[in-house]
Automatic annotation (TrEMBL):
Keywords: Exonuclease, Hydrolase, Nuclease. Residues 22-186 form the Exonuclease domain. This is DEDDh family exonuclease. It comes from Streptomyces cylindrosporus. Residues 243-321 form the BRCT domain.
Amino acid sequence: MLEDRTTAASSPIAWPAAYPQGYAVVDVETTGLARDDRIISAAVYRLDARGEVEDHWYTMVNPERDPGPVWIHGLTSEMLEGAPLFTDIAEEFATRLEGRVLVAHNAVFDWQMIAREYARAQREAPVRQRLCTIALSKELGLPLPNHKLESLAAHFGVVQQRAHHALDDARVLAEAFRPSLVAAAARDVRLPLLECRPLTEWTDRPVPRQSGGYGSYRPTSWRPARKRPACPYPNPGRYEDGRPLKQGMRVAFSGDTSVERDLLEDRAVEAGLHVATSISRLTSLLVTNDPDSGTSKVVKARQFGTPVVDEAAFGQLLRDVAPADE
């Protein structure tokens, strides 16, 4: 049972009617960060509408490949050899996610890994919305030195026992999420919920992309337009090399990305950035893995002097986006 670090019991609040009816606080450990990496352990804490713990669950998963950075997650090939495959735990995992908002720290990463595993298993994860605790801490204006889980935990006095162990990370996040949720409810803060769009097909074998390159995801021939909510922050101007991104900056993407484009854009939105569909003099940054290509966005970026970074550099910048000016 998690220790209640809020005053909700002694000072009842009017709970917003629009808030979700349940949450699944999730952490997954993986063989790496690329789109063809695999889940090697997963944990879920199920919470009720007000953030109270209902139960928790943990499993290791045999990735059928090298476990990756053992020095980070501590799971060796020997430990994983007898673990179930993802297809063996997919139904139980789904039961714990179904009908709930997926909550995670840097939720777009956990969601994309889960979505890919279900696509490999020719199934669909029963998740329709996710909530990133980084985005929620920004909405609440928590005075954190950075956006690491350990900083969020320290803010609420939560003791982390085994960092990068899925069960302990999920416990820590659940314990930090509950007072965050109560604080949001007390101030009637709109929760930063984002849509989860499951993948419908997947292969780990290289297949031709429509653009002629190769990758793991087999795209459909039709990509629906996505109407995103307006960015709530003013545009602070262009990105400057060596400085952090700032909330409100207009970011555009061009060309193939290793992370599915929609998920990469979602991650930018969660960080408080404005995703632009075109390049103008107001664009803060262009993200492309092929800056020498002749796409219209790259050509316009050259004309306007728009700063350009590749996907890897952008991923690093997303880890610590500066808050918008007051």
